[in-house]
Amino acid sequence: MPLIVTDYSWTQTDSTVCISVPLKGGKVEKVNILSTDEYLKVHYPPYLFEAFLFELVDDDRSTAKVGNGIAVISLQKRTNKVWKHLMMTTNDKEKKKVRERALLKYQEKLSSESRSKAEKQHAEKKYALETMMKLEKEERDSILKIKHNEREKTTAEMAAWQLRRKQKVEEEAQLKLQSQRDNQDILKTMTEEQENGCSEGGMVKLDQRGNSDAKSKRKQAQLPAPRLVGNIQVTFTPRVFPTALRESRVPEEEEWLKKQAEGRRAVNADVEELKDLREEERNPDWLKDKGDKCFATGDYLGAVNAYNLAIRLNRQIPALYSNRAACHLKLNNVHKAIEDSSQALALLTPPVVVNAAARARANVRRGSAFCQLQLYAEGLQDYQAALKIDPCNEALQADIQKIKDIIQGTGPNPETQ
């Protein structure tokens, strides 16, 4: 049999009833409070407090606080008036009916909350699944578009090559035909000269090769003039990056180098605020190395301070924001990690080969932060962007599969672990 608590106290106003129940050494986690519009129970083994309320209350607006060895229950009255008593006087049979009604209402409330929670989870899973399907469709459409463009490009190149080949064949045929016509003209001229020479009874003087002087002179007259002597200037396009010519992105690469050079020269900090710093502490590269060393030793706050000062000196270095995002992830500052990763990705434009690894790291860090906020659809986008840059990374492939399993509801949810 439980021990009935009798040393409770209560106060009231026109709209509120406040009941204080001593816990008598009971632990907070073991206190069970059940409240309806006409019944209140506070159970902490082996003690029990029951109140069959004098009037009906609004259970949805009532509150309960447990702590410091006491449970305080604040009940909102349905009608603004002063109660004569806290509890109604009735027999055990009536109390039993009230208790059963209260328990039934409480079970219905729990069932309704469970259904609402299940419907909400179902809606979230449905939204996540639709988002993932949309992303996959966009990825398929992008792949098909790339294939279509490559096919059209290849077809155009083949047509251009066939046209050039046809033109070359026609030119060769014309040259060959012209050569045959020239030979026929020469042969005709020689025949006429021989006939004229024989009719006059003269002898035709032949050169050492057996050709007539007239034929030799005619051939010499038809030969083109010798080529002029000169030098041909050959220049080569300078290449900064080891990229194949057909895959070259020279304008983007030059713009990236220009932005990096401008960022190195930019100093945005106030001179008055930095006059007490040592010479090396005014160098963003030195501060970045210091932050990297602090991060490696586990001093994440020290690393954040070093990166903060370096960013004040130069706000155009993306590695400072990306590394500070890694520190915020370690310190559970998830929103700050998302902001720094986004700033790093904004500075890592245009996307070129040189900044590919940095873009992949920034995407992974922002995707990890989104997943910690349970925004798995957004996190999946960043992880897939990183995998596009480094498609052979097995760790990224495994992480993407885990996120997809969580979205589909087939993987372990970090919230329940």
TrEMBL record:
<feature type="repeat" description="TPR">
    <location>
        <begin position="360"/>
        <end position="393"/>
    </location>
</feature>
<keyword id="KW-0802">TPR repeat</keyword>
<keyword id="KW-0524">Neurogenesis</keyword>
<dbReference type="GO" id="GO:0007368">
    <property type="term" value="P:determination of left/right symmetry"/>
</dbReference>
<dbReference type="Pfam" id="PF04969">
    <property type="entry name" value="CS"/>
</dbReference>
<keyword id="KW-0966">Cell projection</keyword>
<dbReference type="InterPro" id="IPR019734">
    <property type="entry name" value="TPR_rpt"/>
</dbReference>
<keyword id="KW-0963">Cytoplasm</keyword>
<protein>
    <recommendedName>
        <fullName>Dynein axonemal assembly factor 4</fullName>
    </recommendedName>
</protein>
<feature type="domain" description="CS">
    <location>
        <begin position="3"/>
        <end position="87"/>
    </location>
</feature>
<dbReference type="GO" id="GO:0007507">
    <property type="term" value="P:heart development"/>
</dbReference>
<dbReference type="GO" id="GO:0003351">
    <property type="term" value="P:epithelial cilium movement involved in extracellular fluid movement"/>
</dbReference>
<dbReference type="GO" id="GO:0005634">
    <property type="term" value="C:nucleus"/>
</dbReference>
<feature type="region of interest" description="Disordered">
    <location>
        <begin position="192"/>
        <end position="223"/>
    </location>
</feature>
<dbReference type="GO" id="GO:0036158">
    <property type="term" value="P:outer dynein arm assembly"/>
</dbReference>
<keyword id="KW-0539">Nucleus</keyword>
<dbReference type="InterPro" id="IPR052004">
    <property type="entry name" value="Dynein_assembly_factor_4"/>
</dbReference>
<dbReference type="GO" id="GO:0036159">
    <property type="term" value="P:inner dynein arm assembly"/>
</dbReference>
<dbReference type="GO" id="GO:0005576">
    <property type="term" value="C:extracellular region"/>
</dbReference>
<keyword id="KW-0677">Repeat</keyword>
<dbReference type="GO" id="GO:0007399">
    <property type="term" value="P:nervous system development"/>
</dbReference>
<dbReference type="InterPro" id="IPR007052">
    <property type="entry name" value="CS_dom"/>
</dbReference>
<dbReference type="GO" id="GO:0120293">
    <property type="term" value="C:dynein axonemal particle"/>
</dbReference>
<feature type="compositionally biased region" description="Basic and acidic residues">
    <location>
        <begin position="206"/>
        <end position="215"/>
    </location>
</feature>
<dbReference type="GO" id="GO:0030331">
    <property type="term" value="F:nuclear estrogen receptor binding"/>
</dbReference>
<dbReference type="GO" id="GO:0043005">
    <property type="term" value="C:neuron projection"/>
</dbReference>
<dbReference type="InterPro" id="IPR008978">
    <property type="entry name" value="HSP20-like_chaperone"/>
</dbReference>
<dbReference type="InterPro" id="IPR037894">
    <property type="entry name" value="CS_DYX1C1"/>
</dbReference>
<dbReference type="InterPro" id="IPR011990">
    <property type="entry name" value="TPR-like_helical_dom_sf"/>
</dbReference>
